[in-house]
Design brief:
The chain is α/β, with parallel strands linked by helices. The chain folds into two domains: 41 residues, no CATH class; 173 residues, 3-Layer(aba) Sandwich (Rossmann fold), CATH 3.40.50. The N and C termini lie far apart (59 Å).
Length: 233
């Protein structure tokens, strides 16, 4: 135990640059101590799993669908060729329950909206719509940057087809299209695909919170209704 204690204290002194001052050692000896501490840290065994789900042996899109549904999102797996029809069905069902226009961000792929029925109206966020007007929208349609199978989480980086953050926080309904190739197995895989210089919004199901009595309240800080379409080639 004494040896371990001294090793820990030596590492702390080396990290703080106080090893020489504490022991009256030369600068050269202090540098060697720091190098030894760095080498010891690098040599620590790291035999933990770096991934829990190998895409080669797991249905990653299926796992994402299962986990997202656990959050009470409506999840559909559709073919790429059937995506426009699925978008049309989802918006028609929402419009029947909550009439009003749907806001769409800049550069949303036009093919996704190619089969909208008559009566479905779209609004552009150009110039940016005020929050009160966004609140009157029937919903919003966006793409995403990446999705995480392990946690059922969708990540927006607010790039093309995703819009600014208010678009997916103020309207009460969010229809998001996730391409199957955008589904990462787990957090490390997802983070490796993201640009850390961009803003990110993490969405795990419809907005919801619970008080101390575990009474669930939805729509507190985002949409109460999340509809996910997973487009598969």
């Amino acid at each position: 135990m004494t040896g371990s204690r001294e090793a820990i204290l030596a590492s702390v002194r080396a990290a703080n640059g106080t090893a020489g001052a504490a022991n009256g050692e030369s600068a050269a000896h202090q540098e060697r101590t720091e190098a030894d501490a760095d080498a010891a840290y690098a040599a620590l065994p790291r035999e933990y799993l770096r991934a829990h789900h190998d895409p080669a042996t797991h249905d990653i899109a299926g796992l994402f669908a299962e986990r997202a549904a656990d959050y009470r999102a409506v999840v559909e797996r559709v073919s790429e060729s059937g995506l426009a029809a699925a978008v049309s069905r989802a918006l028609a069902a929402r419009a029947a329950a909550a009439p009003g226009p749907f806001v769409v961000p800049e550069e949303l792929p036009g093919g996704w909206l190619a089969e909208l029925p008559a009566g479905i109206t779209l609004a552009r966020d150009e110039p940016p719509l005020p929050a009160a007007e966004l609140d009157r929208m029937s919903g919003v349609v966006t793409g995403c940057a990446v999705a995480i199978a392990e946690t059922g989480t969708i990540i927006l980086d607010h790039g093309p087809g995703q819009g600014r953050r208010a678009l997916t926080l103020v309207p009460d309904f969010h229809l998001v299209v996730v391409q199957s190739a955008q589904v990462a197995a787990d957090l490390p895989d997802a983070f490796a695909r993201l640009d850390p210089a961009r803003p990110h919004t993490f969405i795990s199901g419809p907005s919801a919170t619970s008080d101390i009595e575990l009474i669930r309240v939805e729509g507190v800080h985002g949409p109460r209704n999340l509809h996910v379409l997973i487009a598969e080639a």
